[in-house]
């Protein structure tokens, strides 16, 4: 057992001392068996949510409806979820309601893939009724029970299967894959929000290129927002090393760019991305269009698009051109560092200074003056220092009048 589990042992032992069963479950157990870094250690227990809250002094009822209570233990939050089955599935979706049960077996049985249906007790023993460890050793993704039935219950599982391909580099077990091919259209019933979560994880995985191939092969892509008509382009995506991209905004931008999406904002709205993320993607796409039309960065284009968007656009441009992204991004970072100013905030003069110097009322002339200063500072004509800029403005005005 390694550190993240050892730290959580107190939670399991306390539950056991009170007469309940408790185990580590889900993604953390799978990742531990795979020697991957473990993010969240999740715990499943026979105790009902009220019982969990009665035992631990610090709890947060985050999802009582689904049986989840967060327990704070040594300052670390742990999701403790009551063993459960899911109510009747309707419309190929996970139900709103769940039924609490007292048996671990039933809880593992409702889980999606055998590799995700392994429990580990406080002594490090595995409880693995569906041969999840064998699947992990063979590097295959197989549903718990009959794939068709599991996808009819919750169609999102088909997409989860492919995002796990992207994260783990596993193969879909043949029966599981056939069932995805046969039932791809059920994805229509799934909410956009749930699809977006899985799709973002899919784009971020080290094996994203294989996952894109599978999206096309299984035709799942046809039931994703804005992608139905993009078969050819999606197939192209599998030719790229997605792991060269380092943020969610970069990955969406790369996707939109390679898919030739004309109306970025309506495409992103279909996926219900946050306003923040939408803005970031638009900034990167704008930066990308600028650097591609100018063929390279200039001080002015860098300043105009801003550091963050420029660096992301450079990573994408390098990927598209088959160049070494890291080197290009590093070189661009140096170029950015050598700019006298990177944003308006860096300018040593503000609009208020300008009004103080010249008197009168604010108005468009203040913005024009600031722009003039920015350009002069960027071009290295004047230093970014208040008095010098003031003197330069004066000189510039007399000079302009004399011309
Ligand atoms: P990650 O490391 O990306 O979080 P994970 O396996 O922990 O992967 P989660 O979405 O956090 O994935 O889900 C936690 C666990 O809950 C899974 O391991 C699986 O056992 C179960 N699970 C999640 N979603 C479903 C689903 N749609 N159907 C059945 N079981 C599910
Ligand atoms: Mg998880």
Automatic annotation (TrEMBL):
Binding positions for Mg(2+) per the UniProt entry: 40, 42
InterPro entries (alphabetical): Bact_CCA-adding_enz_type3_sf, CCA-adding_enz_C, CCA-adding_enz_firmicutes, NT_sf, PolA_pol_head_dom, PolyA_RNA-bd
Keyword Transcription regulation in annotation: no
GO molecular function list: ATP binding; CCA tRNA nucleotidyltransferase activity; CCACCA tRNA nucleotidyltransferase activity; magnesium ion binding; tRNA binding
Oligomer status and interactors: Homodimer.
Biological role: Catalyzes the addition and repair of the essential 3'-terminal CCA sequence in tRNAs without using a nucleic acid template. Adds these three nucleotides in the order of C, C, and A to the tRNA nucleotide-73, using CTP and ATP as substrates and producing inorganic pyrophosphate. tRNA 3'-terminal CCA addition is required both for tRNA processing and repair. Also involved in tRNA surveillance by mediating tandem CCA addition to generate a CCACCA at the 3' terminus of unstable tRNAs. While stable tRNAs receive only 3'-terminal CCA, unstable tRNAs are marked with CCACCA and rapidly degraded.
The protein's name in its UniProt record: CCA-adding enzyme
């Amino acid at each position: 057992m390694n550190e993240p589990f050892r730290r959580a042992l107190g939670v399991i032992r306390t539950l056991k001392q009170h007469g309940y069963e408790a185990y580590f479950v889900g993604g953390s157990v799978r990742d531990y068996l795979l020697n991957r870094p473990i993010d969240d250690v999740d715990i499943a227990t026979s105790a009902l949510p009220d019982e969990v809250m009665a035992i631990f002094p610090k709890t947060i009822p985050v999802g009582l409806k689904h049986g989840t209570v967060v327990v704070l233990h040594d300052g670390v939050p742990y999701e403790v979820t009551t063993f459960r089955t899911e109510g009747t599935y309707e419309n190929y979706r996970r139900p709103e309601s769940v039924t609490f049960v007292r048996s671990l077996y039933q809880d593992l049985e409702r889980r999606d893939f055998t590799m995700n249906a392994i429990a580990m007790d406080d002594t490090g023993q595995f409880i693995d009724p569906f041969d999840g460890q064998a699947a992990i050793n063979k590097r295959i993704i197989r549903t718990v029970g009959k794939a068709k039935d599991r996808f009819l219950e919750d169609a999102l599982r088909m997409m989860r299967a492919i995002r796990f391909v992207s994260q783990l580099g596993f193969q879909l077990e043949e029966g599981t894959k056939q069932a995805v091919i046969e039932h791809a259209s059920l994805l229509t019933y799934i909410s956009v929000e749930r699809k977006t979560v899985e799709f973002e994880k899919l784009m971020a995985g080290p094996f994203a290129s294989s996952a894109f191939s599978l999206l096309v092969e299984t035709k799942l892509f046809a039931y994703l927002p804005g992608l139905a008509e993009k078969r050819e382009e999606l197939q192209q995506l599998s030719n790229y090393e997605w792991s060269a991209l380092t943020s969610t905004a970069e990955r969406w931008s790369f996707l939109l760019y390679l898919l030739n999406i004309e109306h970025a904002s309506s495409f992103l709205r279909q996926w219900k991305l946050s306003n923040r993320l939408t803005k970031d993607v638009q900034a990167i796409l704008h930066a990308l269009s600028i650097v591609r039309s100018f063929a390279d960065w200039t001080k002015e284009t860098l300043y105009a698009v801003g550091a963050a968007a420029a660096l992301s656009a450079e990573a994408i441009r390098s990927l598209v051109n088959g160049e070494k992204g890291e080197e290009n991004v590093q070189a661009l970072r140096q170029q950015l560092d050598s700019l006298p100013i990177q944003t308006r905030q860096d300018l040593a003069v503000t609009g208020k200074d300008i009004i103080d110097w010249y008197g009168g009322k604010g108005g468009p002339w203040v913005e024009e003056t600031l722009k003039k200063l920015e350009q002069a500072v960027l071009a290295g004509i004047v230093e970014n220092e208040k008095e010098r800029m003031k003197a330069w403005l004066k000189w510039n005005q007399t000079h302009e009048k004399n011309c």
